[in-house]
Amino acid sequence: MARRKKIYEGKAKIMYEGPEPGTLVQYFKDDATAFNAEKRATIEGKGVLNNRLSEFFMKGLTQIGVPNHFIKRINMREQLIRSVEIIPLEVIVRNFAAGSLSTRMGLAEGTALPRPIVEFCLKDDKLGDPLVSEEHITAFGWATQQDLDDMVSLALRVNDFMSGLMLAVGIKLVDFKIEIGRIWDNDFQRLIVADEISPDSCRLWDIETGQKLDKDVFRRDLGNLTDAYTEVARRLGVLPSNVTHATKPTLIN
Ligand code: 5GP
């Protein structure tokens, strides 16, 4: 049997060559890492949940006209995506203070921000993904001013969509990270949402109890990560309501 071509392996996903030019197969691993991969574990079921949740969010974004890389889910762990040229920046949107913003600004976690704040970090593991300014981004040529305007606009649209979706199921979207890529339609470049949107890259707190339902459960040793992600999936209707643990998730189509 022919072996398929691996394009890239990251901490949580593997990219394989897709069936047609301009496509890739994105495989979601069960591996979890934090603190620049200083903390690692394999968490059974995480990849399956993130594949399904990212599909759910990206399909919703498509429905409201936010362009993204998702084409279709192939199986429990894989999805077909458009191949993009990833802009080497993490785009973070924050609605409430938490994590590195709380540390940097001395703000209590959970403090409401005056408006959503968009931040950019350089995607560079060796440097620990440092926060960068728009001046750095344009001066070093990672993106143009037009790209930056488009990235902020995409990020805020994702924020509005995700905040509403989560609010409807009793979850507060504290912050999240997305990645954005370039595609070309003939001579025209467009920016689209890429990578993944999942509890790995968001902070999600139960509105009533404040319980964390995201990767901070792993980062801060707060309990079982799969249970937390299963709860998010169950509330969103991605898993049937009688599923209590996701070591063997049952998908509903
Ligand atoms: P912070 O800057 O507070 O650590 O993270 C802000 C938000 O971006 C959080 O929701 C966090 O999960 C997400 N985030 C930041 N960096 C990364 C990263 O390298 N990988 C993932 N999966 N999420 C990240």
Measured by DSSP, the beta-strand proportion falls in: 25-35%
Under the CATH scheme, the architecture of the largest domain is 2-Layer Sandwich
Radius of gyration: 18 Å
Shape: globular
The mean pLDDT is: 95
Q: Could you give the distance between the termini? A: 30 Å
The total of beta strands comes to 14
Given as residue ranges, the uncertain stretches (5+ residues, pLDDT < 50) are none
CATH superfamily of the largest domain: ATP-grasp fold, B domain
Under CATH at level 1, the class of the largest domain stands as Alpha Beta
* Number of H- or I-type helical stretches: 6
Domains (count):
2
Element string (H = helix, E = strand): EEEEEHEEEEHEEHHEEEHH
Structural summary, described in words:
One of its GO terms (cellular component) is cytosol. It catalyses: 5-amino-1-(5-phospho-D-ribosyl)imidazole-4-carboxylate + L-aspartate + ATP = (2S)-2-[5-amino-1-(5-phospho-beta-D-ribosyl)imidazole-4-carboxamido]succinate + ADP + phosphate + 2 H(+). The chain is α+β, with helices and mostly antiparallel strands and 253 residues long. The chain has two domains: 89 residues, Phosphorylase Kinase, domain 1, CATH 3.30.200; 122 residues, ATP-grasp fold, B domain (D-amino Acid Aminotransferase, Chain A, domain 1). The chain is built from six helices and 14 strands. Strands 8, 9, 10, 11, 12, 13 and 14 form a seven-stranded antiparallel beta sheet that branches. A five-stranded antiparallel beta sheet has the order 1-2-3-7-6. The longest helix has 23 residues. It binds guanosine-5'-monophosphate.
